[in-house]
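Database export, one record per block. Field names are fixed; values are copied verbatim from the stored entry.
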Amino acid sequence: MKHVYLFAITFFAASCTYAQEDVSFFENFDDGSLANFRYGSTGNKSDFKWKSGAPSSVDKALKVLLFKIDPADSAGAGRGPEIISNNLTHFGTYSSRLKVPDVRKVQPNAGAVVGYFTYQMDSLAGLSEIDFEWLIADPTIIYVGTWTGPRGKLKRIGRTINLAKGIIYNTVYKEGHAGEGTPLTGAQNQPEKVPALEGYDASANFYTYGFDWFPDRITWWIINPVNNEKVILWDYQGSLVGIPQNATRYRMNFWHTNAWSVVTNPASIEKPAQPYELEVDWMSYDALKK
């Protein structure tokens, strides 16, 4: 059944082009072993934090990668459960079908991040990071963007979208983590409007998300489950600033933040009180044909 969802996605050729390790793959998490990823967490080594081949809470016949956040873990990216690709990946199409936890009735101010992303710090080329992120206190909002540059001089391009309401809160460039950033315009700010996706709630259902990474362009998107059409969240082009050029590692994680609150709720930095669950149906990577 999982492959049905892929018919709505335009894939690039499955060939090794930009790096020896750069090979396309599809990971469906149907059993207890990982073929293309390894588990990694710098936090507590609790066994309950992850399981592949677990039954989904939405559909018991569906097997998923299950991440549980450990309330005892300290804040910080990488402290929670995380999977990391065995090999490097590069330009191409990345996509995944996932469902974030719903904490609003239990702990509306929970401070936790679901990260679907790439990340690799190279001592010469700097950081290569492309993100989809959700702060679980408000699962109607999506954060997309990149980080590039050397340690201590990181550059960020980012967009924050309330997809349920069709609101773009910001599309900005900034250096470092502080400040509001400089608004982007023109080709770097397309589309200027994103239509509301009726009923969108990343915690209510599985959605398919993805991004197309080219040397001179990155496009983030979601598949509308009603008609299987691709909704463009951000088509960043017109400048090479913010577009990673070096190979990376493909990842998924779930971690506590005590400093980053969702844009609609500044109080949402509480330590998670329960082992909230992230479910990932599949992840795929299709290398760009040279």
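Remark 1: Confidence is low (pLDDT under 50) at residues 1-20.
Remark 2: The domain at 2-287 is CATH 2.60.120.200 (Jelly Rolls).
End of record.
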